[in-house]
Amino acid sequence: MTHTPEKEAVIVTVKAVPSLFDELAAATQAMMPETREFPGCIEAHLLLAPEREEMVIFQIWESSEAQSAYLTWRAERGDFERLGELIHDEQIFRTYTLG
Amino acid sequence: MTHTPEKEAVIVTVKAVPSLFDELAAATQAMMPETREFPGCIEAHLLLAPEREEMVIFQIWESSEAQSAYLTWRAERGDFERLGELIHDEQIFRTYTLG
Predict the structure, then answer these.
(1) Rounded to an integer, what is the distance from CA A71 to the centroid of its chain?
(2) Which pLDDT band holds residue B2 (cuts at 50, 70, 90)?
(3) B39-68 tens-digit pLDDT
(4) Cβ(B56)–Cβ(A8) below 8 Å
(5) Is A25 on the interface with B (CB under 8 A)?
(6) What is the ipTM of this complex?
(7) How far is B95 from chain A (nearest CA, A)?
(8) What's the pTM value of the predicted model, to 2 decimals?
(9) Contact A66, A21 (CB under 8 A)
(10) Do B49 and A98 touch (CB under 8 A)?
(11) Inter-chain contact B94–A28, Cβ cutoff 8 Å?
C-alpha cells in the first residue's frame, strides 16, 4: 500500500509598513517564480490590496512536507529576514487541507 | 483599443457554528462544481481547517464583474441564506487583484 500525502494550502496575510507597500509587493513578486519551481509546489499566487496595504501569498503544495522544505529553504537564504523590514506587525500564516 | 479586465481573487473566511463544521464543509463542497462552471471563474478551491472550525473559499475570476454576477446568482438562489444557518459570526470577505 502506498501512502498518498494530503495536499496543503497556505494563506499568508501580510500588512506592509506604511508607504512601503509597493516595495514589499515587488520584492515578493520577484520571489514567485522560485516558489512555483520549488519541488511539490502545485500553484502559487500573489494577491494585492493596495488600498488596505495588504498582501496575501496563496500556495497549494503536494504535501505538508514539501511546504516545510520550502519554508526551510527560504529561511536559510535569509529571504524572510529581508522581507521582514517591509512588514508591519506580525504576518498571519494559516494552513488548510484541500476540500 | 480593447480594455483588458483585471483578474480578481476572492478569499472568504468562515467559522462554522460549533459542531456543524462537517455539515458546512459538505454543503459548500457540493456547491463548488457550479462555482467552477460559472462564466468567468478561473479557479475555485475549498480549504478546510477542522481543528479551528474554519473554512476558506478561494476563487480567481476573470474580472470583478464576473465575480459580482456570481454573487448575485448565488444570492438569488438563496444559497447564502441556507449556509448562513451553519456559520458562526460574520464571514470575512476580501478581494484582491492578482500580482
Answers:
(1) 9
(2) low
(3) 999 999 999 999 999 999 999 999 999 999
(4) no
(5) yes
(6) 0.90
(7) 7
(8) 0.92
(9) no
(10) no
(11) no
Instruction: Using the predicted structure, report yes or no on whether residue A90 has a pLDDT greater than 90.
Output: no
Compute the distance between CA of residue B81 and CA of residue A60 in angstroms, rounded to an integer. 30
> Nearest Cα to B96, choosing from A23, A51, A86?
A51
Instruction: Compare CB distances from A11 to B11, B25, B95 and report the shortest one's residue.
Output: B11
Distance CA B59, CA B77 (A): 19
Residues ≥6 apart with Cβ < 8 Å to B89: B15
Count helices and strands (H / E) in chain A.
3, 4
Is some CB atom of chain A closer than 8 A to the CB atom of B10?
no
What type of residue is B24? L
Q: Which three cell numbers stand for residue A94?
A: 494559516
The alpha-carbon gap from B73 to the nearest alpha carbon of chain A, in Å, equals: 23
In contact, A47 and B11? CB cutoff 8 Å: yes
Domains, chain B, in order of start with CATH, read 12-97 (3.30.70.100)
Residue A53 gets the label, from left (phi > 0), alpha (psi -120 to 50) or beta, of: left
**Amino acid present at A67:** Q
* CB neighbours of residue A89 within 10 Å: 8
pLDDT score for A2: 64
